[in-house]
């Protein structure tokens, strides 16, 4: 029996707890993926517990007695974080740090989510999990601090999934924003010199559960494969819906934002595939499924489904 199997056997037999499972974009996808995989799961929302209080969090976890905790809660407003660094750090650093300590003392497995924004964006090859980090924003710095806190506490079986550029059902996201704008405009200017790994929450949640089922632990990059600029992603979404709107490329300098973003943050899924034997599908296939399954409202009768 390996060390990992020993650790898993010693875990509480309680349900999977999904922090952010009631309202978060990823949290809701995790609840669906866990149900499909036959894992009993409990969804947490803001009314259930004050997550930033370690005592309240500990008491809540004692009540639920989870075997696994997925932390899909975060301060995700990248630009607003520049003005609220303390609040961002409470959610992105202190919460995972507290969860790591409680994981060590209570025995549940912690599966946490982080971001491509821990990188500086100057890479030219897809970032591997051990590539040097260098966040360029408060959001990226607080998320990296959360990763480091978990690794420093080092609870048995800790798992961190870095992901990127999420879209999916259940919450406003880049795709719904673009398609809503297309309803009222003939043309849209979208940044074309930031390149990343667009990822569907449905796929990410499935892959996170696959990591759990493979009893994997450590740091992984979990994204749909392929790369795109924001402009390429928007163009494909508009093409699939058939909305009559022209998407034009502009440079980052043409769309100033409070927070800096990495210019190139494509993630390599090699470590994830080595652990699970699974290769994520291309982002364009995941986008197509998302639009045709979940965004019926945006589809026109004459939509081009090619
Ligand atoms: N979205 C992306 O493009 C992206 C990219 C890379 C990595 N990630 C990472 O992926 C994970 C999931 O992101 P997501 O897009 O699914 O996030 P999301 O949709 O913004 O959901 C965030 C969750 O955190 C909860 N939350 C935020 N502030 C809270 C507070 N003060 N107290 C209690 N709950 C609070 C939210 O609750 P309410 O609904 O009540 O506000 C919501 O359930 C995060 O770790 C994020 O850093 C996301």
From TrEMBL:
<comment type="function">
    <text>Catalyzes the reduction of dTDP-6-deoxy-L-lyxo-4-hexulose to yield dTDP-L-rhamnose.</text>
</comment>
<keyword id="KW-0521">NADP</keyword>
<keyword id="KW-0560">Oxidoreductase</keyword>
<dbReference type="InterPro" id="IPR029903">
    <property type="entry name" value="RmlD-like-bd"/>
</dbReference>
<comment type="pathway">
    <text>Carbohydrate biosynthesis; dTDP-L-rhamnose biosynthesis.</text>
</comment>
<dbReference type="Pfam" id="PF04321">
    <property type="entry name" value="RmlD_sub_bind"/>
</dbReference>
<protein>
    <recommendedName>
        <fullName>dTDP-4-dehydrorhamnose reductase</fullName>
        <ecNumber>1.1.1.133</ecNumber>
    </recommendedName>
</protein>
<dbReference type="GO" id="GO:0019305">
    <property type="term" value="P:dTDP-rhamnose biosynthetic process"/>
</dbReference>
<dbReference type="InterPro" id="IPR036291">
    <property type="entry name" value="NAD(P)-bd_dom_sf"/>
</dbReference>
<feature type="domain" description="RmlD-like substrate binding">
    <location>
        <begin position="18"/>
        <end position="291"/>
    </location>
</feature>
<dbReference type="GO" id="GO:0008831">
    <property type="term" value="F:dTDP-4-dehydrorhamnose reductase activity"/>
</dbReference>
<dbReference type="InterPro" id="IPR005913">
    <property type="entry name" value="dTDP_dehydrorham_reduct"/>
</dbReference>
<comment type="similarity">
    <text>Belongs to the dTDP-4-dehydrorhamnose reductase family.</text>
</comment>
């Amino acid at each position: 029996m390996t060390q990992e199997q020993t650790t898993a056997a010693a875990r509480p037999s309680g349900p999977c707890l999904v922090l952010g499972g009631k309202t978060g974009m990823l949290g809701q996808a995790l609840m669906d993926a866990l149900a499909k995989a036959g894992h009993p799961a409990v969804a947490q929302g803001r009314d259930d517990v004050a997550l930033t209080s370690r005592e309240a969090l500990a008491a809540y976890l004692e009540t639920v007695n989870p075997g696994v905790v997925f932390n899909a809660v975060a301060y995700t407003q990248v630009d607003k974080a520049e003005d609220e660094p303390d609040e961002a750090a409470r959610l992105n650093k202190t919460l995972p740090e507290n969860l790591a300590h409680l994981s060590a003392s209570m025995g549940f497995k912690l599966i946490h989510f982080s971001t491509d924004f821990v990188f500086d964006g100057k890479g030219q090859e897809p970032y591997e999990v051990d590539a040097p980090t260098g966040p360029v924003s408060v959001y990226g710095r607080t998320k990296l601090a959360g990763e480091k806190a978990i690794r420093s506490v080092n609870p048995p079986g800790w798992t961190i999934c870095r992901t990127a550029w999420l879209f999916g059902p259940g919450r406003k996201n880049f795709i719904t924003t673009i398609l809503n704008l297309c309803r009222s405009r003939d043309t849209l200017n979208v940044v074309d010199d930031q390149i990343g790994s667009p990822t569907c929450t449905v796929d990410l949640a499935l892959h996170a559960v696959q990591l759990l089922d493979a009893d994997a632990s450590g740091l992984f990059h979990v994204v749909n494969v392929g790369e795109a600029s924001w402009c390429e992603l928007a163009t494909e979404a508009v093409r699939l819906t058939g909305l009559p709107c022209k998407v034009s490329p502009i440079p980052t300098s043409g769309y100033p934002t409070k927070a800096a973003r990495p210019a190139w943050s494509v993630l390599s899924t090699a470590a994830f595939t080595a652990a699970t034997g699974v290769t994520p599908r291309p982002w364009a296939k995941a986008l197509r499924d998302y639009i045709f399954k979940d965004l019926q409202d945006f589809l026109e009768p004459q939509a081009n489904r090619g």
